[in-house]
Amino acid sequence: MEGSKGAKLTAKTIKWISPLFQAAAFLLALSFTTLILLAVGAPPGQAYLNILKGAFGNTNSIANVLVVWAPLLLTTVGVLITFSAGLWNIGVEGQVTLGAIFTTWVLRLLQESALPPWLIILLAMLAGMLGGALWAALAGALKTFGGVNEIFGGLGLNFVATALTLWLIFGPWKRPGTGSMSGTLPFPETLWLPTLSGLRLSPWALGLALLAVVVVYLMLRGTRFGLRLKAVGKNMRAAYLLGVPTWQHMMASFLLCGLLAGLAGALQVTAVYHRLIPSISSGYGFLGLLVAMLVNYQAVWAVPVALFFAALNIGSIQLPIVLRLDSSLAGVLQGLLVLSVLLVEGARQQIMKRLRLSDESAPVEERP
Amino acid sequence: MTNEQLLLGLASVLAAAAPVLFAVIGETISERAGVINLSMNGTILLTAMGSFAVALRTNSLWLGFLTGMAIGALVALIVAFSSITLKQSQVAVGFVLALLCRDLAYFLGNPYMNIPGPRLLAVPIPGLAQLPYVGTLFFNHTVITYLSFVMIFLAWAWIFKTRPGLMLQGIGERPAAAFVRGANVNRMRYLYTVIGGAIIGLAGPAYSLSVKAGWAGTISGLDGIGWIALSITIFGGWNPLRAAFGSYLFAFLQWLGLVLQARLPNIPSQVLQVAPFPLMILTLLLVNIGDAEWVARTLALLPTGLRRLAVRFLRALRASPPAALGVPFESE
Amino acid sequence: MDVALYDIHKTFGRVHANVGITLSVPAGTIQGILGENGAGKSTLMKVLSGFIRADRGEIRLDGRPVVIHSPSDAIRHGIGMLHQDPLDFPPMRVIDNFILGRKGGLLPGRAAAKRDFRALADQFGFSLDPDAYVDTLTVGERQQLEILRLLWLGARVLIFDEPTTGISAAQKEKLFAALRLLAEQGRTVLFVSHKLEDVEGLCHKIAVLRQGYLVGDVRPPYKTAQLVEMMFGKSVAMGERQPAKPGPVALRLESLSVEDDRLKVRDVSLTVHKGEVIGLAGMEGSGQGLFMRAICGLVRPTGGRVWVGDQDLTGRSYLAHKRHGVAFLPASRLEEGLVPGLNLTEHFVLAEERRSFFVDWNAGRSLARQRILDFNIRGAPETPVESLSGGNQQRALLALLRVPLDLLLLEHPTRGLDIESTIYIWSKLKERCAQGMAVLFISSDLEEILQYSDRVLVFFSGRVTPPLEAADLTTDRLGELIGGKGWPEKGGQG
């Protein structure tokens, strides 16, 4: 750009203005949540303290936060890929579910076999990734070949995935006797992904999730494929004329997101629940979309923000018992946080515009 | 099934469709003005909970319905403010609100779970309710169901038969042209989004104070209706009459699921309950497939006569959205 | 109504679009506003019609100063503007378009409006069906609708922005007759154009704008050379025609047919040699765009064959064409050509033929720097494409093309560009033609067609002339063909 003094000053101003606005957004969300707590007659301080204690009170709870963190990271970086291609993969929720279903399926098929347990687990997890990818491919095909907006196709497939889970639990895979909402019969401990002793946390899950973050970060930043995805996301027609096979790239982004979401579902089965339960996805798909929006679509920031969201989820579990509050308080706080970040970011852009500062110089996205 | 049972069943379909109808019509009005209100699923849950709570506390059904409209309008106002004034993505804000309102409904509704409360009673219309067939079908409903009937025609007449309605079409179609014709585009968009939101806000109480009174939290059976209503809005081609058809079709299918379930015990209930969703995807596919590039390419291969026929068929199915849907407007 | 503008100033950022413009137009005058693209004509008209507010200056109507905040203010004062792309609602009916914007009761009152509509239309000899949908009308008919609508709203000053672009010769005749009638009725007409012929033939006086300044307000008899000099500040040499030396065949079409829901282009056969430039002339939407997209695989032909070099590429995708040395540059640069949000380096890396998995950003940046230098682009490797000017965007698009290229298809290569960029773009194109590239281009600028083509195809509502030698054509002859005059009885293509 033209390196005039004015522009430099602007960039500098923006550098300290941006975090200021973000802090304001955080405070806004917090004060709204406080107001809501006051409105229902709950002591806000105690509620927050309870969430903190519930999340970081002891080793066990910290481990539980990390247990949530792993699949959440996977769905977050997964939807970052589809976001790059300009797609709202709302179907990620169903893709997690299908991952769990496929994993359960393979585990059920092979649990009586003579194969070594590690191989069974590996195959089951691969099957889970395949399941997620297939479900994503369905949404992708509807979008690219059927012209069906991925939001509506994805939503419909989410419902179908949930129904499929219920049907399996109450039908073909039901426990001996009658099916129950507590899910299928748990698998033998040999088929569990190894956990740290005494905790529910599997280091494998954590490792896979962090690996996925690194891979997605590098892919979006440093590869030709990542650049093409961005081009497709920002202007599909131009990308095509510049020589990018567009539907193939959109499809690829769906498949990759599905793989990661399917892996998240596989982890839910092999590392957390050890069976198929009705709400196996635990809403991590939608939560991943929220995290991705909150980090302004940058993979690196997904790591701390997803951790924070995971802590809120685990921390609020105790609320109904201790304070007779519904645990959906976590969702309220998360939603308010993203909403106020969106609103404050919008306000910042409008104010910048009013001040006639060019927004191009704002560090919206790291440029190579 | 006897005739009488069938009639009562179909009448229950008309009543059960009311919540979806309000949601679809509210969304249609909002989208006609160019604003997608994606928050619907959350809004409906929050209004269902809020209306029930207020009606229970005040023992006034009317205050309950008013609460619903107020909540719906308020959520729509946030969507309008962030998209029109702050120029943020409507999809992003709407999606966050859908999740936020849902969690808020569950959080705030905790004390009201499974408490018996007030409920609208059916008001047979004197004279008409005794007519054979039609009486049972149309004239023995609650006030809110009657209102849903009226709303279809009101919305349709407003959009297509009045001067301000023409301008509403114009604002969603080409805001710049509406602007030179003297419309304050952004103010109108605010107005219609909020009005649409208030109508969507009737969907919750239509459920929690009429169709299935009470609040049952996550198992209310209401979660998901908002997303379906969004699909029906597209299926309805932004026309209240076609949208009403879609809503009744959906309610009918759900009822059919229940009826068939009793007859076919071998099919798990979940399969029938979910039947409308694949069907919805299928209809969206039919409505949209004419725009897909490969379809145009394949059509070019057909002999002329057949091609004409296929093109005409696809065009008849197609529902094209208001051209400026989701596009912010600035008058320089 | 007398219209007077006093000392109008308007700046956009660093651009001074109008500098102290003072102009007075008495009632009953057809006032031409002449200038090249970017001279400030549109800005001045938008100020008068309430679209934008001047930084300084005054507008007086019949001697009284008025303040105009918005287009609806303007129409209240009797000022109406017809935009180049008529601002109407294509999916709605003519009558609803007519009614929209008129104050009134809750019901639109269609019956009464139709009576008024017919009466007004008869006055001007327009035949429009009030129940037709606007998207079935031609641009000329949509202009007629706008004229009637503005008159119904009581317009006494009518501004026409480049109204002769995209309408047929017959419609132009009709339009001019209507404008003369308006002036006779005592209305004031402001006619904005960059076409000398139109302005000279129609206007009672002509104001010429250049770079934001009013450089003159002349009355007939007009001297074309003088007007040109006022427009450009100097007489412009367009460069000499250089006929191509025909090389081997680059493109061969065998009775190519293509259609969309509005148009059919039938049985076009054409052979293009390397180094040749073929101009496609015609009103916008006469089939030339469809034809061009069929050649490069963006639209599938319904019949015939497309040979590129010795490859039969009929029915193959655009990407397959691209692999065989074909490229297409669309008219809408930011909508279809470039990717807003990505910078120049990212564009060059994207367009590279390399297959490596990882991107070498350093190499990418130096490539970008090199191309920026080669193509004289005013921008840096980090500049996002949307902040480039139109001319620089077009240069960037040319710079993005593969180097050995056999066939280049361009839609309106110089639309919206200043004269300097136009000459630069064509010099680059001719340079590459000399190296053996064939060019097909669409333009609505007759002079551009005649200046740069070796042969010309003229399109008129789907019909195509045989290839005509550009050297044998004149603007008059070309204009007639474009307007549908002088065609053989049974249309077609030899």
Topology:
The complex is a heterotrimer of chains A (368), B (332) and C (494).
Chain A: H1 5-39, H2 44-56, H3 59-84, H4 92-110, H5 117-146, H6 150-170, H7 203-222, H8 224-234, H9 236-241, H10 246-273, H11 284-294, H12 299-315, H13 319-323, H14 329-354
Chain B: H1 3-16, H2 18-32, H3 40-58, H4 61-85, H5 90-108, E1 123-124, H6 134-138, E2 140-141, H7 143-161, H8 163-173, H9 175-180, H10 185-200, H11 203-211, H12 225-235, H13 240-263, H14 269-274, H15 276-288, H16 293-301, H17 304-317
Antiparallel strand pairs in B: 1-2
Helix pairs in contact in B: 1-13, 2-7, 2-10, 2-11, 2-12, 2-13, 3-4, 3-5, 3-11, 3-12, 4-5, 4-10, 4-11, 7-8, 12-13, 12-15
Chain C: E1 3-12, E2 15-25, E3 30-34, H1 41-48, E4 56-61, E5 64-66, H2 71-76, E6 79-82, H3 94-99, H4 110-124, H5 139-152, E7 157-161, H6 169-184, E8 188-193, H7 196-202, E9 205-210, E10 213-218, H8 224-232, E11 249-259, E12 264-273, E13 277-282, H9 288-295, E14 303-308, E15 311-312, H10 318-323, E16 326-329, H11 333-337, H12 344-351, H13 361-374, H14 390-399, E17 407-411, H15 419-434, E18 438-442, H16 446-452, E19 455-460, E20 463-464, E21 468-469, H17 475-482
Parallel strand pairs in C: 3-8, 3-9, 6-7, 7-8, 13-18, 13-19, 16-17, 17-18
Antiparallel strand pairs in C: 1-2, 1-4, 4-5, 9-10, 11-12, 11-14, 14-15, 19-20, 19-21
Helix pairs in contact in C: 4-5, 12-13, 14-15
Provide a short characterization of the protein structure.
The complex is a heterotrimer of chains A (368), B (332) and C (494). Chain A has 368 residues and is mainly alpha-helical. Chain A has 14 helices and no strands.
Q: Which chain pair has the greatest contact?
A: A-B, 49 and 48 residues
Figure out the total of helices of chain C: 17
| Number of strand segments of chain A | 0
Helix content of chain A: over 70%
Largest sheet of chain C: 7 strands, mixed
Provide the β-strand percentage band of chain A.
under 5%
Characterize the quaternary organization of these chains: heterotrimer
Helix content of chain C: 25-40%
List keywords for this structure.
heterotrimer, B: 332 residues, mainly alpha, ABC transporter involved in vitamin B12 uptake, BtuC, 17 helices, 71% helix, globular, C: 494 residues, alpha/beta, Rossmann fold, 3 domains, 7-stranded mixed β-sheet, 21 strands, 33% helix
Tell me about this structure.
The complex is a heterotrimer of chains A (368), B (332) and C (494). Chain A is mainly α and 368 residues long. In chain A, 73% of the residues lie in helices and 0% in strands. Chain A has a domain at 70-200 and 218-296. Chain B has helices at residues 3-16, 18-32, 40-58, 61-85, 90-108, 134-138, 143-161, 163-173, 175-180, 185-200, 203-211, 225-235, 240-263, 269-274, 276-288, 293-301, 304-317, and strands at residues 123-124, 140-141. In chain B, strands 1-2 form a two-stranded antiparallel ribbon. Chain C has 3 domains: 3-232, 3-Layer(aba) Sandwich (Rossmann fold), CATH 3.40.50.300; 237-325 and 404-494, P-loop containing nucleotide triphosphate hydrolases (Rossmann fold), CATH 3.40.50; 341-401, no CATH class. Chain C has 17 helices and 21 strands. Chain C is globular, with a radius of gyration of 24 Å. Classes of the chains: A mainly alpha (368), B mainly alpha (332), C alpha/beta (494). At the A-B interface, helix 5, helix 6, helix 11 and helix 14 of A face helix 4, helix 5, helix 12, helix 14 and helix 15 of B.
